[in-house]
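Session log. Operator J.P. requested a structure for one protein chain; no other inputs attached. Running the standard single-chain path with token output.
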Amino acid sequence: MAQAVPLSRYESPEGDLPFGTRDEVIRVRGGDAQRLVVRETRHGPVMSDVIPSGSAGTDAVLALSWPALRKDDRTADALYGINHARDWATFRSALRQFHSPQQNFLYADVDGNIAFIAPARVPIRRAGDGQHPVPGWDGAFDWIGFVPFEELPVSVNPRSSVLINANNKIVPDSYPHLIAVDWPAPYRAERIEAALNVAGGSHSVGDSVILQQDIVASGMKRVLPRLLAIEPENQRAREAITMIRSWDLRMHRNAPEPLIVQAWIWALTREILADELGSDYRDFVEGGLYTIERLVSDDSPWCDDATTEAIESCDDQIAAALDRALDLLSDRFGDDMTSWRWGEAHVARFRHPVLSRIPVIGDFLTKRLETDGGSDTINRASPRLGGAPETLFENVHGAGFRAVYDLGDLDRSRFMIATGQSGSPLSRLYGSLSERWRDGLTVSLAPETWAVAEQLLLRPAPQ
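Structure written below.
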């Protein structure tokens, strides 16, 4: 945050400084061009000039510090360099110029070398962790440099001969620099590691294709024992718990148990957090299992409902959440729990990027697929956890493109993309791969397939 002193100046450790200004012109087809005056501080552009009035809750202005805004950012050069690298040394050297945003790179070559590296300009802060706006006028929270490239997370040819990354924490607790405060749950990475350990060093292209489709929610093992330990309050709850006890943890679209458990976790997050946080509890719903694991592993004070005089236990809240979840599902899918199916709620909708905005036609061109998986399965298919009840648990996030590369013989690599290779609804290739993508099938791009492939030739119009 920067303190404006009058509107044309702001405070800094060196005294009052003038705002830098520049004009941005946004041309609008069929309308007048829009002119925007961008103010800048020593930390970066002033964002509060373009966000709703009062959002900052202070007379100060909000400025954004971001390494990507530096004029000497060379990330584009890094991308060019890695695409021309011949070995690990030249690949790593190219990534010295990868400045923003921080990415996890996995490397493998035909000589059997493997590596992991997470390059970026990672700020070193005098104080704070970057999660919240901080005063910028006294320099107490200023960046004092970047983590040296040699000290960024890296692993080359580990003794285990395995490198795994599935958005999990990439540094040990002893790592000396701050990369992030919060990390996604480790469940997917743990499941991958377990599957590779079972393989015992023998892992083919086909095995990798199968692994990408794994829908076991292994993180449930950490949470379900706590949830299932409660005493059910009615016959319906007893039936639900009996079903879950015999569940194999697979988030299969034709099974009722994934739907019941997902609704239970969703309702429990609301029961525990909404009384203290109000509508802000929604910011934590995305944490799902990971949030619940930390909230109910011990008898957390969060379990008490702050709006009542009674003191509720975690058991009370778990039982109440199960009833709320079953009420929700009964209203949507009827009273027969055995007929419920995860896929009925967990639908992936593929909308045409342009034509979907046209009434009637847009709905007709939308591809709908019942899907497997969940937020914490290797085959990631994160459900919608907010919005209207009729769209709750829709599949809104997953891998649109999948590939398995065989570096010993690249022609044996396998690929799949959703939903098809054409964006034209008039083409037979529009949506033609949807079911194959959903079901884990793949295609080859090897030369022997070229004879049966179709080619589209685009010719520039004469000037």
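Operator note: The two ends are 51 Å apart (CA to CA).
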